[in-house]
Amino acid sequence: MASLAASSSTSSQAPRTIIVTGASSGIGAYCVRALKADGWRVFATARKSEDIAALEADGIEAFYLDYREPESIRVLFEAVLERSSGRLDALYNNGAYAQPGAVEDLPVEALREQFEANLFGWHDLTRRVVPVMRTQGHGRIVHCSSILGLTPVPFRGAYAASKHALEGLMLCLRQELDGSGVHVSLIEPGPIASKFASNGLPWFLKHIDHENSVHHAAYQAQLLRLRQGGIRSPYKLGPEAVYKVLTHALLSQRPRPHYVVTMPARIGVVLKRLLPASMLYRILAKRA
Prior knowledge:
7 strands; seven-stranded parallel sheet; alpha/beta
């Protein structure tokens, strides 16, 4: 794939351009560096100044972005277009967090914050990008969704809801862009080695009254997993597994609507197709 990316640019052509959000760690941090190595001009985003500095130290053009702040989305978009002379080949929406907690324990404000960061901000940035890509007649829009956007599990209701909404919204967009030269794809990873689980801990402590909940006992196990960085699984893959499918979504002549990553995620999709719903949800409930 690296050679394919490199072959897309010659000495007389500008490199392909891409915005990648959530590049401070994990999947995003790996992908921006791999994309740069493969010849892309990468515009990366992060929220913390030290993460922006680390990206810039590696020669990556980095910007502040918080999906919950519409002004930061506008500023990022305008700055990128100014630097790229109005051209943008791809957008990879990746920045997100997971709000843990049982649905009955979720304050409405927690759900609003989850959707601002995981859906509304993504939609805002995507809407700004689409007219640019329509005008130039080509573009790739890739969203890092989750297997939980297809097969929900207990205590992940806020995150699963945001990803289910993302799946529905962006699959509609994919159909509406048919014939425009702009393609939309969704990546649905299962367990990936990253800071994603531990990053959810502050949100859990902020919004969930775990000491007084009927789910108190279950939350103790949840807290332990969050502090340990998530589930320990022999099937957990590194972020390079996501990058492999990302390059296909960005460069293939026929990018897929869905890219399911990791064995547990693939098994979940197969079980959803084959099993009666009641049996499927009993199996998924055991993952809590």
